Amino acid sequence: MQMSEGVSGHPGTLLLTARAHRHWGRGVIELFGEQDGDVRFSPTTQEKLADEATQSIIVAGRGSWSRALVDGAPPTDPGRLADAIAERLRVLGRPAVRVRAADFLRPASLRFERGREDPDARYEAWLDEGALRREVLDPLGPGGSGRVLPSLWDAAADRATRAAYVSLPEGGVVVVDGELLLGRGLPHEVSVHLSMTPAALARRTDEAWALPAYARYDAEVDPLAVADIAARVDDPRRPARRLSAIG
Q1: Which of UniProt's keywords are assigned here (predicted)?
Q2: What is the share, in percent, of the chain residues with pLDDT greater than 70?
């Protein structure tokens, strides 16, 4: 990796060069999928990421509801960023509801039908996508009711949470955090993806069996490229904001 100053007007930008691609080899390919060209990052902070996402949500949802997805594997801690975004929205006078995708998982009998440690099942079948759409995202779309269910299923207890519905006035926002959220066609106005290199993710996870699910996600969806806002968080104290891909 080399430091490049003044690349496209971004001093201090981290440029992943072809040399870095050759040096890192397969790990980089797994992270960036088949993306052509190099990906540029600029150092940032968690606070600046939250500020940028908040502003994007406000711009996207003028006069109506907004839905934001904060996506990332558990070691990237997407919930922390989602909480910060929701707090900023409330300070700015925008009602915000926080939803965890982990509270919309299928019952254990369905999640573990192929075993408790099946990475393909985690990728394809753990999330109750239909319930998340029906109870959270669709009600905030055009013609929606604004009535949101904050949680549906307690995965640890394997039973319904019996949460009460929350009515959001127009201009309200739901901020959903979770893993493997993009590429499913879930309706939203703003998406944020927190990424780790395969090596960093392997070091920080306590669920090594799930690593193939994240590798498949990177290869099939390329969330680092498709998210509206994306950042590398190998070291959560020193995130790096994705700037662009260059050919």
Answers
A1: Kinase, Transferase
A2: 83
Is the pLDDT at 19 greater than 60? The verdict is: no
2-246 CATH: 3.40.50.300
* Cα angle for residues 83, 188, 125 (degrees, 5° grid): 85
Query: Mean pLDDT over residues 220-246, rounded?
Result: 91
Q: What is the domain partition of the chain in residue ranges?
A: 2-246
User: 63-113: per-residue pLDDT in tens?
Assistant: 789 999 999 999 999 999 999 999 999 999 999 999 999 999 999 999 999
197/217 Cα distance (integer angstroms): 13
Please name which of 45, 139, 56, 131 lies closest in space to residue 97, comparing C-alpha atoms: 139
Q: Quote the pTM value.
A: 0.83
Assess contact for 231 and 29: CB atoms under 8 A: no
Q: What is the 3-state secondary structure (H, E, C) of 86-155?
A: HHHHHHCCCCEEEEEHHHHECCHHHHCCCCCCCHHHHHHCCECHHHHHHHHHHHHCCCCCCEECCCCEEC
Decide if 191 contacts 178 (C-beta within 8 A).
no
Residue 74 contacts residue 195 (beta carbons within 8 Å): no
The answer to whether the beta carbons of residues 197 and 11 sit under 8 Å apart is no
What does pLDDT average to over the chain? 86
Task: Look at residue 15 and tell me whether its pLDDT is greater than 90.
Answer: no
- How far is the C-alpha of 105 from the C-alpha of 14, rounded, in Å? 37
State the pairing for strand pair 190-195/229-232: parallel
- What 3-state DSSP class applies to 41? strand
Neighbours of 110 (CB within 10 A): 12
